[in-house]
């Protein structure tokens, strides 16, 4: 299996100012207004550049013929008949899709019960999402999953309705899949983000939000959008059709759908955030460390939370912070229900 380590010489590390010799890339001269005020922000903003996605990514390639995208935006499922019977066509699609990075996100949601759970759903105080996709710069090689992670209904060692660890090259797996005459079958490519220290980020996010006097229910998650590509025949499972509301349906009913499908979940492409996990010696980053990323986005996120925003925190919010815009601080604890 190819190593996921990155060569330090290949890793671009962003710096606060560009070293490009092009005069247009130089920062403008410092500007001091004629009537400058002495007001200082309690949370000074360090305007590091916010990385942008590489312009070489063909974003339109995420859309496949005869495909659907799950409601949670994690899984693209295509039912193109050529891909389930033509080995070269299947391998070509897998290679192309493996070269596209997943879209890791940071979602920060605050809510509280206004009058108690018995009196209705929680009120959302803020719900913001950040896109970390620009920090995935290296990766995308198509490979077979390690044996313990493989899943196929055609092998031996059945576990929960799925068989695993058959071995073989990706081409061999593709041949097996295309030759399989099962009425319903699926081949899965998974795009994985590796060595991303989400534990550190969650701690920093919770500490910052606590400093705003927020006392509601805080949820911090790290969903990975566009993380799976499924090539299939037959009827889609309930979770593939609507994974965001599967919790409202019977798990047994969805299990019946899955068990009737031959599953070949053996292909993956790895997208390392860093060459080794957090805490390791000589850790190198594909674009930016978690600490540097948080320095870039901490104040834009704080602004969004205090402004009770619901939606994306993006370059626009970063720009507003760089230009000195700040949301008003809360004078007292917030995110709490009515006091009886």
Give an account of the 3D structure.
- The longest helix is centred in the last third of the chain and has 17 residues, at 290-306.
- With 340 residues, this protein is α+β, with helices and mostly antiparallel strands.
- The strands form two sheets. Strands 1, 2, 5, 6, 7, 10 and 11 form a seven-stranded mixed sheet that branches. Strands 3, 4, 8, 9 and 12 form a five-stranded mixed sheet that branches.
- The chain is elongated and about 65 Å long.
- Helices cover 21% and strands 20% of the residues.
Task: Please outline what is shown here.
This protein is of the alpha+beta class and 340 residues long.
Mean pLDDT level = 79
Gyration radius, in Å: 24 Å
Helix segment count? 7
Shape: elongated
Q: Topology as H/E string?
A: EEHEEEEHEHEEEHHEHEH
Helix content range: 10-25%
How would you sum up the major sheet?
7 strands, mixed
Which structural class do you get from the secondary structure elements?
alpha+beta
Number of strands: 12
How much β-strand is present in the residues?
A: 15-25%
Uncertain residue segments: 1-5, 8-40, 154-165, 237-257
| Amino-to-carboxy terminus distance | 61 Å
